[in-house]
Automatic annotation (TrEMBL), chain A:
<keyword id="KW-1133">Transmembrane helix</keyword>
<keyword id="KW-1003">Cell membrane</keyword>
<dbReference type="GO" id="GO:0005886">
    <property type="term" value="C:plasma membrane"/>
</dbReference>
<feature type="transmembrane region" description="Helical">
    <location>
        <begin position="233"/>
        <end position="259"/>
    </location>
</feature>
<feature type="transmembrane region" description="Helical">
    <location>
        <begin position="126"/>
        <end position="148"/>
    </location>
</feature>
<feature type="transmembrane region" description="Helical">
    <location>
        <begin position="45"/>
        <end position="63"/>
    </location>
</feature>
<feature type="transmembrane region" description="Helical">
    <location>
        <begin position="359"/>
        <end position="378"/>
    </location>
</feature>
<feature type="transmembrane region" description="Helical">
    <location>
        <begin position="155"/>
        <end position="174"/>
    </location>
</feature>
<dbReference type="Pfam" id="PF02653">
    <property type="entry name" value="BPD_transp_2"/>
</dbReference>
From TrEMBL, chain B:
<dbReference type="InterPro" id="IPR025997">
    <property type="entry name" value="SBP_2_dom"/>
</dbReference>
<dbReference type="Pfam" id="PF13407">
    <property type="entry name" value="Peripla_BP_4"/>
</dbReference>
<feature type="signal peptide">
    <location>
        <begin position="1"/>
        <end position="30"/>
    </location>
</feature>
<feature type="domain" description="Periplasmic binding protein">
    <location>
        <begin position="36"/>
        <end position="289"/>
    </location>
</feature>
<protein>
    <submittedName>
        <fullName>Periplasmic binding s and sugar binding domain of LacI family protein</fullName>
    </submittedName>
</protein>
<dbReference type="GO" id="GO:0030246">
    <property type="term" value="F:carbohydrate binding"/>
</dbReference>
<comment type="similarity">
    <text>Belongs to the bacterial solute-binding protein 2 family.</text>
</comment>
<dbReference type="InterPro" id="IPR028082">
    <property type="entry name" value="Peripla_BP_I"/>
</dbReference>
<dbReference type="InterPro" id="IPR050555">
    <property type="entry name" value="Bact_Solute-Bind_Prot2"/>
</dbReference>
């Protein structure tokens, strides 16, 4: 994107999001595009194709191993859903041209903010959850504020926070609890109104019981269904993905995000509140990390100082596979979700084949390269020098 | 030009990725049973290498395939997903460490609910193992290990001791001290020192304690991290080699101490057995279609291949009525060379 006054005018007129361009009927500046070409040009195309490819590969390699049974599907969907939550946050932030490396440390820190007050100060679970959300969003705001104020690359600022938060998690958990893993939150969460409503247990357990009674799904020896329902993290993932996609595609704020990432100066010149947009996206990313942490603590019943290690890179990889550009201004939440799905399927899928799981990271690296090259190639072919 | 080259490269990468995935498909074995061992160790943890080697050899001896799985970053939440995955894959048997009972309970119940035999290893207690519905636990019960060492000390005429605890944040560490104290008949609370993690701090705390309690006859360190500073403290007080000293686990410095006589012995939990025995137990169970622990143990003891491995690496398991303990084993002057020869591989 070249910043020029002409460009800024265009940007002011109709934004940069391609979805927003309403063509006047006889405007010679607007090209007619075929539907297929438009589909191929969408940022999420590569990750969608990749997801289909991965499913085909594992369908052959692990089709009869139980990977595609109900309990197998729920298992890898959970892995994908957890990663999906934070990759949505990482993706919208990357579209705005910024980066957050503190996501993983934030997960550990937020988990402790839930667990320590609940177990050691005897707060009700719902209060601890609100405290954790408030705390991590405040930290997200601080991240954003520092990036905007100091003009330092967000890479540096959030790299610092990656260490600060990981260190704080360890130090504070030793200080308050004298241990690095705080357990005993599970029952407290399940018996809490907010916890049981939003974070623990499964959705549709009635339906699953009914299906089990009809013998449609596998049951345990006592007649209970093997899979008690859809874990809430999967529902959260869908809600968050749809919400973020809607904001990006259909709202003014979504246009601002694309504008800020495409060319912050030009955006500022046409009146987009660049600083506010960036800071609020850092807050949103912290919110995603905290949501991940709360769901995980409610699920496994404990917080630990090493939770979320390296998850920031996994989130960024998922977003990049999903078509987001490191330089900002381009990307798609749906793509990032497919990236997370590929991630979950491959990570768990490898354990269904007889391949040693030591190879998982090799796969991941190769996949990342292939996805980015493929993305670039398709984009160049379809958009013809945007 | 640019575009064509990129196309070629992309194509090469695509082919590579596909070839890799097809390679994964063709790597099927013609084994009878498939088991999986799930540890809590991150990729960087070298201690589990011994266990990886052990499951490989047990697989050869009993003609079964054993997969090794671990959470790459040592995250227990990831570990519980791996256990769920093992349940979904219909393995013939699952082996897992009880890294944290409350975190893994739900996932392990998935395994037992599907009637897949489960053996627990390494960390965790025998009670927890039984509560999870596992067949048995193969590990080193902390209290028993301390008690075993204490009985050896008692035989040497020890009546008082200091327990140097460098990881007091873990409640099970005190079990080691308690076992030793009860074996020689003293109160463990008076003899236990919460030494902290810092080597300098450990050294000064140990010398302070020994000055305040000059009648102390023995020192028990709970690991190499507290053994080295404690030995330094003894050396500076001129007590090294004169005072009875034992430690948990081996390090180079401890090995040197065993050689020169300043360390009586190191208590070894024999990780090889934590890998080998569960595989052997599951194989015997499925191949003989029995769930009776006594029968399984008898068959295991009678197995010539297993006995050959024990003799080769100088290992000795302890058989209980239900559970088999991998430790305590003792590393003394007599077997030190053998241990060092196989250290990190089979010991």
């Amino acid at each position: 994107m070249n910043s020029s006054s002409v460009h800024a005018d265009k940007l002011g007129a109709d934004g940069v999001a391609p979805a927003q361009q309403k063509a006047a009927p006889n405007d010679e500046r607007v090209r007619k595009e075929g539907a297929l070409k438009r589909f191929l040009g969408r940022p999420e195309f590569a990750s969608l194709a990749g997801a289909i490819l991965v499913f085909i590969v594992f369908g052959f390699a692990a089709g009869d191993s139980g990977m595609f049974n109900l309990d197998g599907v729920v298992n890898w969907m959970q892995v994908a859903a957890y990663l999906g939550l934070i990759s949505i946050g990482a993706c919208v932030l990357m579209i705005a041209g910024e980066f957050d490396l503190s996501i993983g440390s934030m997960i550990g820190f937020a988990g402790m903010m839930v667990a320590i007050p609940t177990v050691y100060f005897h707060w009700p679970f719902w209060l601890a959850v609100l405290f954790a959300f408030a705390g991590s969003m405040a930290l997200g705001w601080l991240n954003g504020y520092l990036v905007v104020k100091t003009r330092l690359p967000s890479f540096i600022v959030t790299l610092a926070f990656m260490f600060i938060l990981r260190g704080l998690t360890l130090a504070l958990s030793i200080m308050f609890a004298n241990r690095t893993i705080v357990s005993g939150v599970g029952d407290l969460a399940a018996n809490d109104w907010l916890g049981s409503w939003l974070f623990t247990g499964n959705l549709g357990s009635g339906l699953f019981h009914w299906m089990a009674n009809h013998g449609w799904i596998a049951t345990m020896a006592n007649g209970q269904p093997l899979v008690a329902g859809i874990p809430k993290v999967i529902a959260w993932w869908l809600v968050l993905a749809l919400g973020a996609s809607f904001v990006l595609a259909r709202t003014q704020f979504g246009n601002w995000i694309f504008a800020v990432g495409g060319d912050a100066n030009a955006a500022k010149n046409v009146g987009v509140p660049v600083k506010r947009v960036k800071i609020s996206l850092f807050v949103f990313t912290a919110f995603c990390a905290c949501l991940f942490a709360v769901l995980q603590v409610a699920d496994v019943g404990s917080a630990a100082a090493d939770r979320g290690l390296q998850k920031e890179f996994e989130a960024i990889i998922a977003a990049v596979i999903g078509g987001a550009l490191l330089t900002g201004g381009y990307g798609s939440v749906i793509g990032a979700c497919f990236g997370a799905l590929i991630f979950g399927v491959v990570q768990i899928g490898i354990t269904y084949t007889n391949l040693n799981s030591d190879w998982f990271r090799v796969f991941l690296g190769v996949m990342l390269l292939v996805a980015v090259l493929f993305n670039n190639y398709v984009r160049r072919r379809v958009t013809e020098a945007r | 030009m640019q575009r064509i080259r990129c196309k070629g490269l992309a194509r090469v990468l695509m082919v590579t990725a596909l070839a890799m995935s097809f390679g994964a498909m063709n790597a099927t074995y013609a084994a009878n049973e498939k088991f999986v061992l799930i540890s809590h160790a991150p990729d960087s943890d070298s201690w589990w290498n011994t266990i990886k080697n052990a499951i490989k050899q047990a697989g050869e001896d009993f003609n079964v395939t054993v997969d090794y799985r671990n959470p790459p970053n040592g995250d227990l939440a990831d570990m519980s997903r791996l256990i769920e995955q093992a349940a979904a894959r219909h393995y013939d048997g699952v082996i897992a460490s009880i890294a944290d009972f409350s975190v893994l309970k739900k996932a392990m119940e998935n395994v037992t609910a599907k009637k897949i035999p489960l053996v627990t290893i390494n960390s965790g207690t025998q009670q927890q193992s039984e509560e999870l519905g596992a067949i048995m636990h193969v590990g080193q019960p902390e209290y028993d290990a301390g008690k075993g060492a204490g009985e050896k000390a008692k035989a040497a005429g020890i009546k008082s001791f200091l327990c140097v605890n460098h990881y007091a944040t873990n409640p099970s560490s005190f079990e080691r001290c308690r076992g030793f104290a009860e074996a020689i008949g003293v109160d463990y609370k008076k003899s236990t020192l919460d030494a902290g993690q810092d080597p300098t701090g450990i050294e000064s705390k140990v010398s302070a304690y020994l000055r305040n309690n000059p009648g102390t006859q023995a020192v028990l360190a709970l690991g190499p991290d507290s053994a080295s500073p404690s030995l330094r403290a003894l050396q500076k007080m001129g007590l090294k080699g004169k005072m009875w000293f034992a430690t948990f686990d081996l390090s180079e410095e401890v090995a040197k101490g065993i050689k020169d006589g300043s360390v009586q012995f190191a208590i070894d939990q024999q990780p090889y057995l934590q890998g080998y025995i569960p595989v052997a137990v599951l194989a015997i169970m499925t191949q003989n279609k029995t769930t009776d622990v006594a029968t399984i143990q008898a068959k295991l003891k009678a197995n010539p291949k297993f006995q050959a491995r024990l003799a080769e690496y100088g290992l000795a398991p302890l058989y209980g009525p239900r559970h088999i303990s991998s430790g305590p084993g003792y590393i003394t002057k007599d077997n030190l060379d053998k241990v060092l020869k196989y250290a990190g591989q089979y010991r």
